[in-house]
Amino acid sequence: MRIWFNKTFSSISSIFSNLRQAQGVGSLTIIASHTNPYAPALVAAHEAYVEPSGLVGEAYLQWCLAFCQAKQINLFWVAKEARFLGKHQEKFAAIGTKLLIVAKPEVLALLNNKGEFYRSLPPEIALTMESRSARNKEEFDQAVAELAQRHASLCVKPAVSIYGLGFRILDTHQTSITHLLKGIEYQIPLDELRAGMETTPVFPELLIMENLTGHEWSVDCVGRQGQLLCAIQRRKLATGLGQLIDNDAEIQGMVLRLTQYFQLNGIFNIQFKLGAHGPRLLEINARPSGGIGMACLAGVNLPELVLKSLEFEVVELPTIHYGRRVSELNAPVVLEAASPALLSGS
């Protein structure tokens, strides 16, 4: 089987490593492409190619179709432009290529906007932290005043962002110079944030939320059109202590219901954090997490499981080693430029 991974995050190299170790899935050729010819993840692929920069929408669709034909791709593990490409699966099927996408286009759009996601999620599916949204200073002040009555600490984050970009805890006691001198991270003085809003009358949606202060879990999952096949919980410990393979029943229940509700597919990641009244859902990432390699150390090769789920109705799940402590090491590599993807007519 020839599997193509288009432009994505460098953490995809963990997927490549586990696919190379996969058993019972036949011969695999891992093809990777990126607009950066020196993208580190390309080193771990069998074949590496350069994508044209700047292609989106219809232009990118046509390039992907040509690439799949030229490189005889059997399975296209989609990252870049997943929402758009997902609307054209029949065009890929016509040339013998199957698309692997985490969810339908409308679900991917919802997962990308945390504000809409939180507002639309039924509480019987999963519980989130209490939150409000604001697009101007007046809405922000109202949200802070309301939430501060019930929660000792609040935080903010843009409704649309990746990783933890933009996340800050609201500090009502210290100034930014104190943060700078003491090396305090992920906090922002409330008064200074409000002052900044004076010169920005309207801004993109900002979420104001109760600040959860307990343990955080990263759950790496494999699904098949809404059926949860495996979920490995990694509970994050203090810096330097690694992560613990956990088995929290409340989290497992929410993961199962979320997978069914959103009809999730392939590999995805769900984040939770412990609050005063139990674990709360933070977000669903429609992609493999940066720590998926650690999850596989629990005893299940998740990428292998995905391939088996595409071929077999019933897949056997190996034993998950709960309580195992895991971590990861960075490895130095030599970077060589990937080959141009020379397609017919290009």
Structure, explained:
The protein has 346 residues and is an alpha/beta fold. The chain has three domains: 2-101, 3-Layer(aba) Sandwich (Rossmann fold); 130-210, Dna Ligase, domain 1 (2-Layer Sandwich); 213-326, D-amino Acid Aminotransferase, Chain A, domain 1 (2-Layer Sandwich), CATH 3.30.470.20. 30% of the residues lie in helices and 25% in strands. The chain has twelve helices and 17 strands. The strands form three sheets. A six-stranded parallel beta sheet has the order 5-4-1-2-3-17. Strand 1 (2-5), helix 1 and strand 2 form a beta-alpha-beta unit. The radius of gyration is 22 Å and the shape is globular. The model has no long low-confidence stretch (mean pLDDT 95).
Lay out the secondary structure:
Blueprint: E1 2-5, H1 12-20, E2 29-34, E3 47-50, H2 57-70, E4 75-77, H3 82-85, H4 89-93, E5 98-100, H5 105-112, H6 114-120, E6 131-134, H7 137-148, E7 154-158, E8 168-171, H8 176-182, E9 187-189, H9 190-198, E10 206-210, E11 216-224, E12 227-236, E13 243-246, H10 249-262, E14 266-275, E15 278-285, H11 292-296, H12 302-311, E16 325-326, E17 339-340
Parallel strand pairs: 1-2, 1-4, 2-3, 3-17, 4-5, 8-9
Antiparallel strand pairs: 6-10, 7-8, 7-10, 11-12, 11-14, 12-13, 13-16, 14-15
Helix and strand succession?
EHEEHEHHEHHEHEEHEHEEEEHEEHHEE
Strand-pairing-aware structural class: alpha/beta
CATH fold-level assignment of the largest domain: D-amino Acid Aminotransferase, Chain A, domain 1
**Average pLDDT for all residues:** 95
- Please, how many domains? 3
How far the N terminus sits from the C terminus, by CA atoms, comes to 26 Å
Helix % is 25-40%
What is the CATH top level name of the largest domain? Alpha Beta
* CATH architecture type of the largest domain: 2-Layer Sandwich
* Biggest sheet architecture: 6 strands, parallel
Strand content: 15-25%
Give the uncertain stretches in residue-range form.
none
Shape label: globular
The CATH superfamily of the largest domain appears as ATP-grasp fold, B domain
